[in-house]
Design a protein that fits this description.
single chain, alpha/beta, eight-stranded parallel β-sheet, 8 strands, 36% helix, globular, binds D-xylitol-5-phosphate, binds zinc ion
Length: 218
C-alpha cells in the first residue's frame, strides 16, 4: 500500500491546525511540510516557527519536511528541534556537500531524504542510496502547488526501484508534484512508496476518498 503525505502548502493557512488534523483523520499517514526560501525556488512559504506551532498542536504527527532552500546544512538542526521527523534536502542545492548534509540531519536526530528536480537524472543519487532513508522524485519544477504532473518522473521511479532492489536496500521512494487519483496509482505502480498530494487533496469534496484511492494503488 502506498502511503499518503499531504502537502500542507495547499491548506488554508488561517486554519492550518484544523486542516492538518482533518487530513490525518481522513487517513493520511503524515504531513508534508514544504519550505521555500525565495532563492532555491522562486517562492517563499513558511519556516521553523510555523512547524514548531504545528508540532505543538499535533505532536504525534510524522513531519515529512521538504527543504527547497539553498542552505540545508545550516537549517537542519532548527527544523529538527521544531519537530521534523524526516528532512529531505535537494541534491542541486548542495552538490558538493551531500555527505556533510546527510550527517548533519542524522546528527540532529532525523531521518534523511534527498530530492531531485525534473532535470536531474535518477543516477545522480545512486552513490548515496545506502545512506538515505528516502529519495524524493519531483514530478513538477519545485516552487508551487497545483502544477501538472510530468510523466518523466515515472521512469525515474522505476529506475530507482530497480537500483534499490539490485542492492537489497530499503530506501523509500517518494514522488511530489501533480499527484492525484489518476497519476498517484501510476507512480505507485512505477515504484513510489509515498505519494505527496496537495491541491488534489485539499480541494477535494471528499478527501478521505482521495486518500483511499491512493492507498489502494501499488
Ligand atoms: C512543490 C511542492 C509540492 C507541492 C505539491 O514545490 O514541493 O509539495 O506543494 O502540490 P500539488 O500536489 O498541488 O502539486
Ligand atoms: Zn514538496
Amino acid at each position: 500500500m502506498a502511503m499518503v503525505s499531504p502537502s500542507i502548502l495547499s491548506a488554508d493557512f488561517a486554519h492550518l491546525g484544523s486542516d492538518c488534523r482533518a487530513v490525518l483523520d481522513a487517513g493520511a499517514q503524515m504531513l508534508h511540510y514544504d519550505v521555500m526560501d525565495g532563492h532555491f525556488v522562486p517562492n517563499i512559504s513558511f519556516g521553523v516557527p510555523v512547524l514548531k506551532s504545528l508540532h505543538k498542536a499535533l505532536p504525534d504527527a510524522f513531519y515529512d519536511v521538504h527543504l527547497m532552500i539553498d542552505d540545508p546544512l545550516t537549517y537542519a538542526e532548527p527544523f529538527a528541534k521544531a519537530g521534523a521527523s524526516l528532512i529531505t534536502f535537494h541534491l542541486e542545492a548542495v552538490p558538493d556537500a551531500v555527505p556533510e548534509t546527510i550527517a548533519a540531519i542524522r546528527a540532529a536526530g532525523c531521518q534523511v531524504g534527498i530530492s531531485i528536480k525534473p532535470g536531474t537524472p535518477a543516477e545522480a543519487v545512486y552513490p548515496y542510496l545506502d545512506d538515505l532513508d528516502l529519495v524524493l522524485v519531483m514530478s513538477v519544477e519545485p516552487g508551487f502547488g497545483g502544477q501538472k504532473f510530468m510523466p518523466s518522473a515515472l521512469d525515474k521511479l522505476s529506475a530507482l526501484r530497480a537500483e534499490r532492489d539490485r542492492h537489497g536496500l530499503h530506501t523509500l521512494l517518494e514522488v511530489d508534484g501533480g499527484v492525484n487519483t489518476e497519476t498517484g496509482p501510476q507512480c505507485a505502480a512505477a515504484g513510489a512508496d509515498w505519494l505527496v498530494t496537495g491541491s488534489a487533496l485539499f480541494k477535494a469534496k471528499d478527501p478521505a476518498a482521495v486518500i483511499d484511492t491512493l492507498h489502494g494503488s501499488h
